[in-house]
């Protein structure tokens, strides 16, 4: 067998392990399938010692036939296509490989409730909570270390080692999420991550078809999904198509030499997503973006390989059907082959029409960000991705606005101008807006640990257009800068026995921490039943100095949002907004119940935001 040589560290090339270390028996990918799927002819990869030497492949199962088969370049693999007819029933298909053994391939009955009980999609009516399972709560200490895995670390005193959080810890605190008004849970990747170190974040996973056992495995993931759905909540899975971990079996024992983007020496991506649409970009720069490795520990997948493309697409469908996923967050979207992404998105939507997806598109301006989503401009490539993580609304929007406390209010103008570019999107409400995440400086630190800025950011987040996403701990003023990134991934207080501070119960929280948590709870609960914030239109007024006013409204409800980012009070003349206030006599503060007569001018204190429901 030809060994694949990859760069492990520095400038030394090391031959990686041969088959047998990763897996002792015969496995199939996917591990199973279902009857009654639209995706009814599937690629099955059989992996095992010598399976590629089979003289023939056959099945003897009513309604199932072998459409074709072939060995791979690597004798550890055999590829076949199974055609699952409409007459096929649940059971076990025996794939007989003449001269190479037999492997069982289960066919199951489909989940019920496609689009209603699962694969429901994530919309602007939802409120997403993003957490890292290893850092949120440890509900089952028995899985903190799993024998046989390379990383046996467990040390909460280190920001880069495992801390023990798991699915059970999340299950134990679903009441808390609902108190915040959260309707959808997004976790960083939950697939097996059998790397030697830095396994806490999950993005360098090593087996697509195994759920990380230190989180609770497939059984724990299903229990969490079922518990969310029983509460009327939704599950978002973090999908990574661009790369895998260095110890993934696809890297250690590839079926062929073209499953990865291989370079003579380690070659990193240039992280320049603009080379995708730049009409003047060199082919070399574009190739470096999409084919370069994300890090030395994350080899880059070649999605233009049709066998790999089928593997990735089927895995996406398998996850939705297996675990009842409702939404799909796609990592490092611009680094993927975009034609492949369109095919993958289309395959998911064909099977699950209500499923929604949003991609991580960390681009330098709105137009380039919109290029990766369904957009309204004419370009050679047209994306079918419903929405993106709206980095522009963060950096050139709310961060610019709240970060500028001058009376002139230049920052709020940048926010309105950024939102004014929404005409580039087919549906800007499908974009996910946020203040921070696991890869960037936390909002509280970005705002120099100013409580008023934290409050304004959250009020904007829960009232602006789009789908709001809150990063764990933002509601209790967790701080941290992104260099090193571990400081933005600290433990959620109260998630471990013996924690002196407990955000779940409020024990030992400071008054400031409690006040911000209360803001999230009150506004999150209000948002649950607010038609204007769920799906209403938005109207914004050109800022005057540091005063920025916008409305969310529909036929049933109107909400006035007024933000004063300056240090000094400003007068709010409600008559300026008569286009939206006509027919109303007062605004009631959603957080304080204070009433403001619209016939009068009111003073909005500095570094303060109002959220007023008009009556």
TrEMBL record:
Pfam families in the cross-refs: Alpha-amylase, Cyc-maltodext_C, Cyc-maltodext_N
Keywords annotated in UniProt: Glycosidase, Hydrolase, Signal
GO molecular function, one term: hydrolase activity, acting on glycosyl bonds
Any one GO biological process: carbohydrate metabolic process
Gene3D superfamilies for the chain: Glycosidases (3.20.20.80), Golgi alpha-mannosidase II (2.60.40.1180), Immunoglobulins (2.60.40.10)
Listed InterPro entries: Cyc-maltodext_N, Cyclo-malto-dextrinase_C, GH, GH13_cat_dom, Glyco_hydro_b, Ig-like_fold, Ig_E-set
Domain of life of the native organism: Bacteria
Residues annotated as signal peptide: 1-22
Glycosyl hydrolase family 13 catalytic domain segment(s): 130-527
PANTHER family hit by this protein: ALPHA-AMYLASE FAMILY MEMBER (PTHR10357), MALTODEXTRIN GLUCOSIDASE (PTHR10357:SF210)
Protein name per the record: Glycosyl hydrolase
The species this protein was found in: Puia dinghuensis
């Amino acid at each position: 067998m030809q060994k694949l040589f990859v760069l492990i560290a520095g400038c030394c090339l090391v031959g990686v392990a041969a088959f047998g270390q990763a897996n002792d028996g015969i496995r199939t990918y996917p591990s199973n399938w279902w009857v009654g799927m639209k995706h009814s002819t599937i690629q099955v990869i059989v992996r095992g010692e010598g399976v590629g030497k089979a003289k023939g492949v056959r099945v003897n199962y009513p309604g199932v036939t072998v459409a074709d088969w072939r060995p791979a370049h690597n004798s550890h693999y055999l590829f076949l296509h199974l055609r699952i007819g409409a007459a096929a029933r649940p059971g076990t298909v025996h794939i007989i490989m003449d001269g190479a053994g037999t492997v069982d391939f289960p066919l199951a009955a489909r989940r019920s409730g496609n689009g209603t009980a699962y694969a429901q999609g994530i919309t602007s009516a939802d409120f997403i909570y993003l957490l890292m399972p290893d850092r949120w709560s440890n509900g089952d200490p028995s899985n903190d270390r799993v024998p046989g895995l390379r990383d046996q670390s467990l040390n909460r005193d280190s920001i880069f080692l495992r801390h023990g959080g798991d699915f059970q810890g999340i299950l134990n605190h679903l009441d808390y999420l609902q108190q915040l008004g959260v309707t959808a849970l997004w976790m960083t990747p939950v697939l097996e991550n059998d790397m030697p170190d830095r396994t806490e974040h999950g993005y360098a996973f090593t087996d697509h078809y195994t759920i990380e056992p230190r989180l609770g495995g497939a059984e724990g993931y299903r229990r969490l999904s079922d518990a969310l759905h029983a509460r009327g909540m939704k599950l978002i899975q973090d999908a990574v198509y661009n790369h895998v971990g260095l110890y993934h079996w696809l890297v250690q024992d590839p079926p062929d030499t073209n499953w990865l983007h291989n370079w003579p020496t380690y070659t990193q991506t240039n992280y320049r997503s603009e080379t995708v649409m730049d009409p003047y970009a060199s082919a070399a720069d574009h190739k470096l973006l999409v084919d370069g490795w994300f890090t030395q520990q994350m080899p880059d997948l070649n999605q233009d390989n049709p066998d790999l493309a089928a593997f990735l697409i089927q895995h996406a469908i398998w996850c939705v059907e297996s675990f009842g996923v409702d939404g799909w967050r796609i990592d490092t979207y611009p680094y993927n082959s975009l034609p492949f992404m369109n095919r993958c998105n289309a395959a998911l939507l064909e099977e699950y029409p209500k499923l929604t997806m949003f991609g991580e598109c960390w681009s330098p301006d709105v137009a380039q960000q919109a290029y990766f989503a369904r957009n309204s401009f004419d370009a050679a490539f047209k994306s079918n991705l419903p929405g993106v993580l709206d980095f522009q609304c963060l950096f050139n929007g709310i961060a610019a606005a709240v970060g500028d406390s001058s009376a002139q209010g230049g920052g709020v103008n940048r926010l309105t101008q950024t939102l004014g570019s929404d005409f580039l999107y087919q549906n800007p409400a499908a974009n996910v807006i946020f203040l921070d995440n696991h890869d960037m400086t936390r909002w509280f630190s970005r705002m120099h640990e100013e409580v008023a800025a934290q409050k304004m950011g959250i009020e904007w987040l829960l009232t602006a257009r789009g789908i709001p996403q809150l990063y764990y701990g933002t509601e209790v003023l967790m701080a941290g800068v992104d260099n090193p990134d571990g400081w933005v991934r600290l433990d959620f207080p109260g998630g471990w026995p013996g924690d002196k501070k407990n955000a779940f119960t409020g024990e030992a929280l400071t008054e400031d921490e409690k006040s911000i948590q209360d803001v999230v709870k009150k506004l999150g609960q209000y948002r649950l039943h607010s038609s204007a914030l769920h799906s209403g239109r938005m109207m914004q007024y050109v800022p005057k100095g540091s005063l920025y006013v916008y409305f969310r409204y529909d036929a049933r409800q109107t909400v006035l949002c007024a933000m004063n980012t300056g240090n000094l009070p400003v007068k709010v003349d409600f008559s300026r907004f008569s286009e939206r206030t006509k027919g109303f006599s007062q605004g009631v503060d959603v957080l304080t119940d204070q009433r403001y007569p619209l016939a009068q001018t009111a003073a909005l204190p500095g570094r303060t935001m109002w959220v007023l429901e008009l009556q």
